[in-house]
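Interim report to the steering committee. The following record documents the input for Thiol reductant ABC exporter subunit CydC (572 residues).
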Amino acid sequence: MNELLNTIRIIMLKKKDVILSIVFAYIAGITAVGLFAANGYLISKAALQPPLYVLLIMVAVVKIGSILRATSRYGERYYSHRATFTMLSDLRVHFFDRLEKLAPSLLTKYRSGDLLARIVGDVESLQNFFLRVLYPPIIMVTVFLSTILFVSFYSLAIVILLTIGLILTGVLIPAWFAYKQKKVSNRMREERGHLSTEVTEWFHGFREFKIHQTLEDKEQQLVAASNAYIQEDQQAGQHSLYNQSINTAVSLMIVWAVLAVGAYSVANGSLDGLFLAMLVMVSLTVFDHSTPMAAFPVYYEESERAATRLGAVVKEDDQSMTSTVEMRSFPSGAPSIELKGVHLTFPGEKRKTLSDVNLYLPAGSKTAVVGPSGSGKSTLLSLMLKLQTANEGKLLISGTNVNEFEPESVWKNSNVILQENHFFHGTVKENLLLASNDLTDEDLKQLLVAVQLPHLELSDTVFEKGQNLSGGERQRLAMARAVAKGASFWLLDEPTSSLDSWTEQRLYELLYKKAKEDTVVVVSHRLEGLEQMDQIIVMDQGKIVEMGTFTELMKAKGYFYQLKQIEKNILK
């Protein structure tokens, strides 16, 4: 419910459209009731052969009412839909602003297909919140109350019948439908999320499925997921139609009851027969605003679930927004790094990725983090980049807790190379200028030469994800982008894993030259080129097992020495 309240707050940002749509809808609704009442009265009055001017006046009233109803209905449609589309726009912007701060860490918590279903599907689901959830009950109640007040001047018995009809068709029956619909709606959303996940995996993994000859099996899974979703969607639609038909049947029974009670009242003289047709027409029309309430549970459940799923994604942002800690900007110059008793376990896992990590990296130092695959090296880098948050312990940057820094401030002041670096479809120049717009074409050409890419031109096309580049070219282009940024904090995750030894050595020479006064942290499973590092951190199973300079570790003949000997034997 709290998430829906947030949605209401966003809707009320454009309160003028909301209020005008409700006002016009009320005018349209009450005018429709008045028109039917006037028609009923006109039919009865015409049977008594009144003077012609009386009929002309009544016809004129009906005509004016028809024009007023059409005009107000147009105004209601215009302002309600404008409010809805504006709400969707504001909701997307609001959600994206909060999502942007968490985007890097979200991929470790949600499968990409599920995340896509939330960002696209759940936001779209909320388009029905105003038109089908918030707005109809207000119109139904206001029109019913006005109608009951009018009818009370003619028959209290019919007022009681209309009130019973309002309670049945507007409250009790929709509540019963809501109870029955809940399981169906939950299954439908689960199947939709499963289908989105399967479709995303099919697109992302198409090449691998094709190479391993498993594409047909994956297509069968995709078709099965699609059929399951279609089946649940059809079942939900059938439930909704059934609910509306029941609600319509009940409202018609109330109309027949109004006719019977009205006829009895006319027979015993408590009601003028001139008004019987008018009251029947009124009851026939007023229920037009309650029968749609049968679909209210479906849209309410859908909106609440969508808002809850969206709220779950940005829950961390809500917690950070309520924090009393004042966020700081990243310190200028090369920072120092200190970890005190850091533990980290990924959600849903029992194994600790990092366990009791204590580490100090002086400002301007050059540090290598080495160890076997899965030892926690990249996770340690993610903590420093504020892509992950430690479960226990502290990470201090220049003496300040990393949680007190704005994530954007950390990223802005860091030169980052990840294991997988994204390249956008465009030119080499456009991908380099992603890091900095201050470099001239001549600067960029010299940079390409420095990273051993003299054969690339700035106008050369780069495909999405750099698919037309080799693995080594992508790593060298990522290094060029990091150098172009010019920050004082370097976080490099396997920056040379796809390079030959000669090119690797040239890149390390460039790094030492450009980052002479900067703080550098390099994660690598290769031990070549680390002799000039100020210290080397050796990790295994999430723990630091050794620490020291290259010479110190080789003399100690410990874990690092063994890794180095294994590497030498492999390279022989």
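The longest helix spans residues 52-106. The committee is asked to note this result when reviewing the revised timeline.
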